[in-house]
Amino acid sequence: MRRFMLLFVMATSCWAQQAKPWYKSCTFWSTMSLVGANVADASSSWRQVELNPALASPGGKFGARSATLKFSLVGGYMAVQSFFIKRSPESRRAWCAASYGGAALVGGVAARNYSLR
Fold it and tell me: What pLDDT was estimated at residue 18?
């Protein structure tokens, strides 16, 4: 236990000296919250009836094909976000807000899906 605590203290002190500016961590955490919300939505919809015809499989359920399409769209959003942030760094705050907003929306849908089970 002492070794673990020593390792933990050493690791956190190393990270503390490599602090990133807030705007870089905002982009990372907003994107990760969006990805996490989509994972929660996909797991709450798995093998359930899908109302979105673009995501529904031929049987009308959410499955592997639907999840692949959903995560491809999220990956495309992340690529577009990265491109525009590199091109115009002052737009980072707007992209963070859009990602957090999307995560809140999709997370709400996932919570609704879990409540219907």
Answer: 60
